[in-house]
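Standup notes
- HV: blocked on the assembly model, inputs below
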Amino acid sequence: MTAVVETARPSPWAAIDHCYEAGWTDGLPVVPPAEALVDAYLDELGWDPDEVALTEPVRSREITLRKVVANGVMAGCLPAYLPVVRAALEALGEPQFNLHGPVTSTGGATPLLIVNGPVRDAIGMNYRDNLFGPGNRANATIGRAIRLIFLNCLSARPGVLDRSTQGSFGKYTGCFAEHEAASPWEPLSVARGVPEGVSAVTVFAAESPHNILCHGTTVPEQILAIAADTMAALGSFSPGQSVVVLAPEHTRFIAAAGWSRRDVQTFLFDHARRRLADLKRAGKVEAAGAITDADEHEWVHRGSGPDDILVLVGGGDAGGHSAFFPSWSRSRSSEAVTRAIT
Amino acid sequence: MPSPDPAAGAIVVDGVRLLDPTLRDTRDRAALAPRLGSLDGVRFGLLANGKTHGGRLLDLIVEDLSTRHRLGPVTRVRKAHPSRPPTDEQIEMLAEHALAILSAIGD
């Protein structure tokens, strides 16, 4: 027999308030994780509530599907969104992602979720106008579910285990899909080993995106030179990976010139670089020592090679605005992981 | 007022049964080691977290402690990465050479 509590306010407001008081939210109101709703989601998905979706590697916390669904409900997810959340969690648990780092770091990283394949349209994801912004339930709530799981299951509370100096707005949510129809290349997930036609999610520990604004040229070398210059900015310069989301307009110009994805990656890697001497002058090299003549001629590239630059297409049909997402961390601390969604 | 329903792992608020979405550590917490009565002669291990100024911060602490205590030999270890635990070899080195270990974040 469970107690029923009378309050002056009608449901569901008391339950929403309780979620605030219990510290379960990200600051925005949540859908209260009503047991009946969570059970209905689990039934619809055919999931075993006690199955572990993710074991946090450092503190061995086991996040069960019941907790995943409870947080997904709170985020506002529909049941059909949760396989994306589950696949993302599996990817986040891979050793090369180094989950503990992005969750706790002073750097303020957020796990970016990039979705490919049929699931994009099946659940109505946005990959066109304002794909990084508000207005789409699937994009918004899938990313939010991951953040709520971090907050509630990994104690990633600001000032507790999340020690971000400034954080980022992407910590509320960070999920979008690739505009595959606007791309002349295979989907990002296929380039990363997932079979064509299979839905997938790629997770990437990202800093805030940088705009790559270019309206004045249709020449691929010029467009990509601006992108490379953005990627070489000292503030986020590191040996880490990069995500470059090309706007359809930029993509059309690049595709018309016959460039392959590999051509783009190679160009960006070759040009996203700084002289070692400049890195030393800027204080970006620990225990740098004196600047030598050789340092003036030694180039340091962003990333380890062209494969470290994940290139995909997304955004509205018009507008010369692409985006660069730098990797988290001053070193090569986390690598992107792609998982099929089943 | 919410009413806990621990038997069911739920909380009832205004007639709505809510599931607790949180998770806490399930591992047993290690007991604290006995406190040191004195720092005189104590062999210290310094475990720097691998950030820019971690080692420097620890050296400053040892320097300060040395003005008030006759410290024993100091063993310095720097993690390869702030987000990863020390290696087994590093832990073994500290266990072998240090009675007390200082760790700190220095960024």
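- HV (later): unblocked. The first strand of chain B starts at residue 3 and ends at 5. The first helix of chain B runs from residue 54 to 66.
- Next: hand off to the docking folks.
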